[in-house]
Specification:
InterPro entries: CheY-like_superfamily, OmpR/PhoB-type_DNA-bd, Sig_transdc_resp-reg_C-effctor, Sig_transdc_resp-reg_receiver, WalR-like, WH-like_DNA-bd_sf
Largest sheet: 5 strands, parallel
Distance between the termini: 30 Å
Organism: Aliarcobacter thereius
Helix content: 40-55%
Keywords: DNA-binding, Phosphoprotein, Transcription, Transcription regulation, Two-component regulatory system
Number of helices: 9
Protein name: Response regulator MprA
Low-confidence stretches: none
CATH superfamily of the largest domain: Response regulator
Strand content: 15-25%
Radius of gyration: 18 Å
CATH class of the largest domain: Alpha Beta
CATH architecture of the largest domain: 3-Layer(aba) Sandwich
Number of domains: 2
GO biological process, one term: regulation of DNA-templated transcription
CATH topology of the largest domain: Rossmann fold
Protein backbone atom coordinates (compact mmCIF):
# COMPACT_ATOMS: atom_id res chain seq x y z
CA UNK A 1 0.00 0.00 0.00
CA UNK A 2 1.39 3.40 -1.01
CA UNK A 3 1.16 6.57 1.06
CA UNK A 4 -1.35 7.87 -1.49
CA UNK A 5 -3.87 5.33 -0.18
CA UNK A 6 -4.08 7.39 3.03
CA UNK A 7 -5.03 10.60 1.30
CA UNK A 8 -8.82 10.38 1.33
CA UNK A 9 -9.02 9.20 4.94
CA UNK A 10 -9.97 11.51 7.83
CA UNK A 11 -8.36 10.79 11.19
CA UNK A 12 -8.90 12.15 14.70
CA UNK A 13 -6.31 12.00 17.51
CA UNK A 14 -7.58 12.43 21.09
CA UNK A 15 -5.24 12.94 24.05
CA UNK A 16 -5.19 15.45 26.90
CA UNK A 17 -1.37 15.64 26.93
CA UNK A 18 -0.41 18.50 24.62
CA UNK A 19 3.10 17.33 23.68
CA UNK A 20 1.92 13.83 22.83
CA UNK A 21 -0.93 15.27 20.77
CA UNK A 22 1.29 17.70 18.86
CA UNK A 23 3.90 15.05 18.05
CA UNK A 24 1.25 12.59 16.90
CA UNK A 25 -0.55 15.14 14.73
CA UNK A 26 2.75 16.16 13.14
CA UNK A 27 3.39 12.54 12.17
CA UNK A 28 -0.16 11.86 10.99
CA UNK A 29 -0.16 14.96 8.78
CA UNK A 30 2.60 13.32 6.75
CA UNK A 31 0.22 10.50 5.91
CA UNK A 32 -3.30 11.94 5.87
CA UNK A 33 -4.78 15.03 4.24
CA UNK A 34 -7.32 15.61 7.00
CA UNK A 35 -6.04 15.29 10.56
CA UNK A 36 -8.06 16.55 13.54
CA UNK A 37 -7.15 16.73 17.21
CA UNK A 38 -9.00 17.04 20.52
CA UNK A 39 -7.78 17.36 24.08
CA UNK A 40 -10.86 15.74 25.63
CA UNK A 41 -13.88 13.63 24.83
CA UNK A 42 -16.30 16.56 24.56
CA UNK A 43 -14.09 18.17 21.93
CA UNK A 44 -13.77 14.83 20.17
CA UNK A 45 -17.54 14.42 19.90
CA UNK A 46 -17.84 17.84 18.25
CA UNK A 47 -15.30 16.81 15.63
CA UNK A 48 -16.92 13.41 15.14
CA UNK A 49 -20.30 15.06 14.57
CA UNK A 50 -18.96 17.73 12.22
CA UNK A 51 -16.12 16.01 10.33
CA UNK A 52 -17.07 12.31 10.54
CA UNK A 53 -13.54 10.86 10.73
CA UNK A 54 -12.86 7.36 9.42
CA UNK A 55 -10.25 6.54 12.07
CA UNK A 56 -9.96 7.59 15.73
CA UNK A 57 -6.84 7.22 17.87
CA UNK A 58 -7.61 7.90 21.51
CA UNK A 59 -6.05 7.75 24.95
CA UNK A 60 -8.04 6.10 27.75
CA UNK A 61 -7.26 8.17 30.83
CA UNK A 62 -8.68 11.64 30.20
CA UNK A 63 -10.64 14.16 32.30
CA UNK A 64 -14.46 14.35 32.32
CA UNK A 65 -15.10 11.20 30.30
CA UNK A 66 -12.50 8.52 29.65
CA UNK A 67 -11.67 7.11 26.23
CA UNK A 68 -13.45 3.79 26.72
CA UNK A 69 -16.70 5.54 27.64
CA UNK A 70 -16.35 7.66 24.49
CA UNK A 71 -15.91 4.51 22.40
CA UNK A 72 -19.01 2.95 23.96
CA UNK A 73 -21.04 5.97 22.90
CA UNK A 74 -19.57 5.87 19.39
CA UNK A 75 -20.40 2.18 19.02
CA UNK A 76 -24.06 2.93 19.81
CA UNK A 77 -24.31 4.83 16.53
CA UNK A 78 -21.37 3.71 14.38
CA UNK A 79 -19.92 0.23 13.88
CA UNK A 80 -17.79 1.12 10.87
CA UNK A 81 -15.35 3.66 12.28
CA UNK A 82 -11.89 2.25 13.03
CA UNK A 83 -10.66 2.90 16.57
CA UNK A 84 -7.14 2.54 17.99
CA UNK A 85 -6.52 2.93 21.71
CA UNK A 86 -3.27 4.26 23.14
CA UNK A 87 -2.80 3.81 26.86
CA UNK A 88 -0.30 3.45 29.66
CA UNK A 89 -2.62 0.83 31.16
CA UNK A 90 -1.81 -2.87 30.81
CA UNK A 91 -4.36 -4.12 33.34
CA UNK A 92 -6.41 -7.13 32.25
CA UNK A 93 -9.70 -5.37 33.07
CA UNK A 94 -8.96 -2.58 30.61
CA UNK A 95 -7.83 -5.02 27.93
CA UNK A 96 -10.97 -7.16 28.23
CA UNK A 97 -13.24 -4.11 28.19
CA UNK A 98 -11.45 -2.76 25.13
CA UNK A 99 -11.82 -6.04 23.23
CA UNK A 100 -15.61 -5.89 23.62
CA UNK A 101 -15.62 -2.48 21.92
CA UNK A 102 -14.30 -3.90 18.63
CA UNK A 103 -11.06 -1.98 18.53
CA UNK A 104 -8.52 -2.27 15.76
CA UNK A 105 -5.66 -2.30 18.25
CA UNK A 106 -4.82 -1.63 21.89
CA UNK A 107 -1.31 -0.14 22.00
CA UNK A 108 0.61 0.54 25.20
CA UNK A 109 2.42 3.89 25.46
CA UNK A 110 4.93 5.09 24.48
CA UNK A 111 4.06 4.39 20.86
CA UNK A 112 6.69 4.38 18.14
CA UNK A 113 5.86 5.22 14.53
CA UNK A 114 7.08 1.85 13.25
CA UNK A 115 4.49 0.17 15.48
CA UNK A 116 1.64 2.56 14.68
CA UNK A 117 2.15 2.65 10.91
CA UNK A 118 1.17 -1.00 10.15
CA UNK A 119 -1.93 -0.58 12.33
CA UNK A 120 -2.93 2.48 10.32
CA UNK A 121 -2.29 0.58 7.08
CA UNK A 122 -4.61 -2.18 8.26
CA UNK A 123 -7.34 0.34 9.12
CA UNK A 124 -7.09 2.01 5.72
CA UNK A 125 -7.17 -1.34 3.93
CA UNK A 126 -10.35 -2.34 5.77
CA UNK A 127 -11.98 1.03 5.09
CA UNK A 128 -11.27 0.71 1.38
CA UNK A 129 -12.41 -2.89 1.15
CA UNK A 130 -15.21 -2.93 -1.42
CA UNK A 131 -17.29 -5.51 0.38
CA UNK A 132 -17.32 -3.63 3.67
CA UNK A 133 -18.11 -0.27 2.07
CA UNK A 134 -20.99 -1.25 -0.19
CA UNK A 135 -24.50 -1.74 1.17
CA UNK A 136 -26.84 -3.28 -1.41
CA UNK A 137 -30.58 -2.63 -1.20
CA UNK A 138 -31.20 -4.47 -4.47
CA UNK A 139 -29.05 -5.63 -7.37
CA UNK A 140 -29.46 -2.22 -9.00
CA UNK A 141 -29.29 0.05 -5.94
CA UNK A 142 -26.51 0.40 -3.37
CA UNK A 143 -24.86 2.90 -1.03
CA UNK A 144 -21.10 3.41 -0.78
CA UNK A 145 -20.55 4.13 2.92
CA UNK A 146 -17.01 5.36 2.33
CA UNK A 147 -17.67 7.74 -0.56
CA UNK A 148 -21.14 8.57 0.84
CA UNK A 149 -22.85 8.14 -2.54
CA UNK A 150 -26.12 6.40 -3.39
CA UNK A 151 -26.20 4.60 -6.75
CA UNK A 152 -29.18 3.35 -8.72
CA UNK A 153 -28.83 1.73 -12.15
CA UNK A 154 -25.16 2.85 -12.10
CA UNK A 155 -26.12 6.51 -11.73
CA UNK A 156 -25.38 8.54 -8.59
CA UNK A 157 -28.50 9.84 -6.84
CA UNK A 158 -28.52 13.32 -5.34
CA UNK A 159 -29.26 13.44 -1.60
CA UNK A 160 -29.81 16.37 0.73
CA UNK A 161 -27.50 16.64 3.76
CA UNK A 162 -30.19 15.29 6.08
CA UNK A 163 -31.00 12.42 3.71
CA UNK A 164 -27.31 11.55 3.45
CA UNK A 165 -26.76 11.67 7.21
CA UNK A 166 -29.88 9.59 7.85
CA UNK A 167 -29.00 6.97 5.24
CA UNK A 168 -25.41 6.79 6.53
CA UNK A 169 -26.64 6.21 10.08
CA UNK A 170 -29.03 3.49 8.99
CA UNK A 171 -26.37 1.77 6.86
CA UNK A 172 -23.88 1.84 9.72
CA UNK A 173 -26.48 -0.25 11.55
CA UNK A 174 -27.93 -2.09 8.56
CA UNK A 175 -30.58 -4.71 9.31
CA UNK A 176 -30.76 -3.41 12.88
CA UNK A 177 -33.26 -1.03 14.44
CA UNK A 178 -32.05 2.55 14.93
CA UNK A 179 -34.07 4.17 17.71
CA UNK A 180 -35.60 7.62 17.53
CA UNK A 181 -33.36 8.99 20.29
CA UNK A 182 -30.27 7.94 18.29
CA UNK A 183 -31.65 9.61 15.17
CA UNK A 184 -32.27 12.79 17.17
CA UNK A 185 -28.77 12.71 18.70
CA UNK A 186 -26.95 12.11 15.40
CA UNK A 187 -29.03 13.80 12.69
CA UNK A 188 -30.65 16.65 14.63
CA UNK A 189 -27.96 17.15 17.27
CA UNK A 190 -28.08 20.94 16.91
CA UNK A 191 -31.87 21.33 16.79
CA UNK A 192 -35.13 19.64 17.77
CA UNK A 193 -36.35 16.79 15.58
CA UNK A 194 -40.05 17.16 14.81
CA UNK A 195 -42.25 14.38 13.46
CA UNK A 196 -42.77 16.37 10.26
CA UNK A 197 -39.07 16.98 9.68
CA UNK A 198 -38.23 13.29 10.07
CA UNK A 199 -41.18 12.16 7.95
CA UNK A 200 -40.10 14.54 5.17
CA UNK A 201 -36.60 13.03 5.10
CA UNK A 202 -38.03 9.50 5.16
CA UNK A 203 -40.57 10.22 2.40
CA UNK A 204 -37.99 11.73 0.05
CA UNK A 205 -35.47 9.00 0.78
CA UNK A 206 -38.03 6.27 0.08
CA UNK A 207 -38.62 7.80 -3.34
CA UNK A 208 -34.94 7.17 -4.12
CA UNK A 209 -34.65 3.67 -2.64
CA UNK A 210 -36.17 0.31 -3.66
CA UNK A 211 -39.59 -0.42 -2.24
CA UNK A 212 -39.79 -1.81 1.31
CA UNK A 213 -36.09 -1.52 2.17
CA UNK A 214 -36.67 1.31 4.68
CA UNK A 215 -38.85 0.02 7.51
CA UNK A 216 -40.56 1.95 10.30
CA UNK A 217 -41.25 0.48 13.73
CA UNK A 218 -43.99 2.44 15.47
CA UNK A 219 -42.74 4.46 18.47
CA UNK A 220 -39.30 2.83 18.14
CA UNK A 221 -37.40 3.91 15.05
CA UNK A 222 -36.25 2.83 11.57
CA UNK A 223 -34.32 -0.01 9.96
CA UNK A 224 -32.65 -0.26 6.54
CA UNK A 225 -32.72 -3.71 4.91
CA UNK A 226 -29.65 -4.73 2.93
CA UNK A 227 -29.11 -7.92 0.93
Amino acid sequence: MSINEFKNIKILFVDDEKNIRLNAVSYLERLFDEVYEAENVLGAFEIIKDKKPHIIITDINMPQINGLEMIRKIRQIDNEIKIIVLSAYTKTDYLLEAIELRLEKYLVKPIHHDILFPVLKSCVSKLKSHNSNIKYFSEECYFDTFEKILYKDNDSIKLTNKELDFLSLLCENSNNLVHYDTIQAVIWSDSFMTDDSLKTVVRKLRQKLPKNCLENFSKLGYKIITI
